[in-house]
Specification:
Structural class: alpha+beta
Radius of gyration: 21 Å
Number of helices: 9
Distance between the termini: 36 Å
Shape: globular
Strand order of the largest sheet: 3-4-5-9-8-7-6
Order of helices and strands: HHHEEEHEEHEEEEHEHHH
Strand content: 15-25%
Number of strands: 10
Oligomer: single chain
Number of domains: 2
Length: 311
């Protein structure tokens, strides 16, 4: 059985308990058959075995981490940790239900929290080397009009997603309006997304760091209720990633360096990540919150994970 569907079915089954019905005064449902209980227990054990093995193959890192692209370095404090690009791919595809083949420079997570914890958020790290992005018009953009265009682009991209067998996306709106800091050359905003018929909406919180030859792309992946927690962590995350000497925004040489064909508005709209002028089918990450089941109750994986934290 698919791990996502398995976990969701187990989560649903575990929420129905005779004791709740008895306390509430409603009619007590029939007890599940022995065969059903045995099957449920077997599926629980299979999922927990997979999850424990998944955790054991993660290697959290802290401290100074040079990114594989050679243009930027992370300085990860003890209250966060970093996973390599290979391990991040497994989190995104195997654990969180995204299309396989995602390319990142790794991911960041809050310290002591497992990627398999339904309450955990993560930050993907990517780099787009399309040239120096001018910030001259950053203060002139109408972000409400831009949102309308983005919503149209997302609806168009759903054709690609659904043809590939994935759920349609609805861009509900801004969760945090775009803001640009001309002193640090960093921009951030957040979007509220709905995947398919999911009742719990997904939060994509976006950070862009402008550099000499491209843009460092940091995206939070979380649920809407986690927005306050993320905003409390925002300044720390903004400080974790910096371009190396020679690759900073102020190192731009107009006589030598390429200038990007787009500006600040295109970064927000997602055109920098698009393949054909539309937001590509697999470029908005999500986290399937139905995946995690009895882990929180047993505490098994959190103990395993905390024991693996290293610098």
């Amino acid at each position: 059985m698919n791990k996502t569907l398995l976990a969701f079915s187990l989560c649903t089954a575990l929420t129905i308990t005779p004791s709740f019905a008895s306390i509430s005064g409603t009619e007590q449902p029939a007890s599940p058959s022995t065969e059903t209980t045995d099957q449920l227990n077997a599926e629980q054990q299979a999922y927990l075995a997979w999850a424990e093995n998944f955790e054991k193959n993660l290697h959290p890192q802290t401290g100074k981490i040079a990114l594989a692209n050679g243009v930027a370095t992370l300085d990860v404090p003890d209250n966060f940790y970093y996973l390599s690009p290979e391990e991040s791919e497994k989190v995104l595809a195997e654990a969180w239900g995204n299309p396989p083949g995602q390319t990142t420079l790794g991911m960041l997570f809050p310290a002591g929290a497992s990627p398999l914890d339904g309450q955990t958020w993560g930050v993907t790290i990517q780099y787009e080397e399309d040239g120096y992005v001018s910030d001259e018009n950053a203060g002139d953009i109408n972000y409400d009009e831009l949102l309308t265009q983005m919503q149209s682009d997302v609806r168009e991209s759903n054709k690609q997603r659904q043809q590939a067998g994935y759920e349609a996306i609805d861009l509900v709106g801004w969760a945090t309006s775009p803001r640009y800091n001309p002193d640090t050359h960093k921009m951030y905003w957040s979007k509220e997304l709905k995947f398919g018929d999911d009742e719990e909406h997904t939060l994509n919180y976006n950070i862009r760091l402008l550099g000499r030859q491209g843009v460092l792309v940091l995206n939070f992946i979380a649920s809407m209720p986690q927005l306050p927690d993320i905003e409390r962590s925002l300044n720390e995350v903004l400080d974790i990633a910096e371009f190396d000497q020679g690759n900073r925004y102020e190192d731009f040489n107009p006589e030598l360096d390429k200038v990007a064909a787009y500006g600040i508005g295109a970064l927000v709209a997602g055109k920098v990540l698009a393949k054909t002028g539309l937001i590509a089918a697999a470029l908005i990450f999500l986290k399937k919150f139905g995946v995690i089941i009895v882990v929180a109750a047993g505490g098994l994986l959190s103990r395993v994970f905390k024991g693996k934290k290293s610098s």
